[in-house]
Amino acid sequence: MTDYYxxxxxxxxxxxxxxxxxxxxxxxxEWFEAPNIRRGGWSGVIKxxxxxxxxxxxxxxxxxxxxxxxxxxxxxxGRPTFEREFQNLLRLKEHKVPTLxxxxxxxxxxxxELQAILITKELAGYLPxxxxxxxxxxxxxxxxxxxxxxxxxxxxxxxKMHLHHFQHNCLYLKHIFVRPVGxxxxxxxxDLEKLKKTIFKRSAVIRDLYTLHRHxxxxxxxxxxxLFKSYRQETKLSKTSKNLWKTIEKKILSKRG
Length: 257
Known about the structure:
Blueprint: E1 4-5, H1 9-15, H2 21-25, E2 33-38, E3 41-52, E4 55-65, E5 68-69, E6 79-80, H3 81-94, E7 102-110, E8 113-121, E9 127-128, H4 144-163, E10 166-167, E11 176-181, E12 184-189, E13 196-197, H5 201-214, H6 221-232, H7 239-256
Antiparallel strand pairs: 1-7, 2-3, 3-4, 4-8, 5-6, 7-8, 9-11, 10-13, 11-12
């Protein structure tokens, strides 16, 4: 397939002698994440600082070989999982749902081996929501108002994602990255390998909010309500919203049971 380069990144990769698939594939450095061997292949990640006109910029280079996922149009051989993640990055960007910036993507069949490379820009200054820095008295969240704005920013971002019928399918705290910007917050949704578009928005809403709610056991009930109200764009929950909340809680209780 034709190599994809994000805006301005081809020149940057060329200046770092990394413009070609071969150069990226043969790059020798320590693993940021040791290769994951499964699905009959492997997949690993390295982190690299590139020289740019603005100084050093970090990127994550993900490489895989025969690490495939079956799809409707590729039910037998499958396709590289990074190809699906890359296409989902582009889909979210098209709908202005904040996520990672794609730098480069390409896939090839090399001597019968399916290989893929996906590069994304590092989220410098961002932290995943499961970071200990979000614990009480950590200093990152200044006061109750600052925390409310964080929860509202998360709710707004998830609502935008679901508005376009995107279901994340793996919405854990570690997959929501945030950065304080003055009194507000910038939010990014990552790990899009399992993201899909649904026919019915409600199924995406229930699945993702259930997953997130189930993994925020350390949050207070107030925090949960503030986020949910922001997501629903309501200062007082409507009957429809209350029923949705009950559906999610019932699903959680059934899982625990």
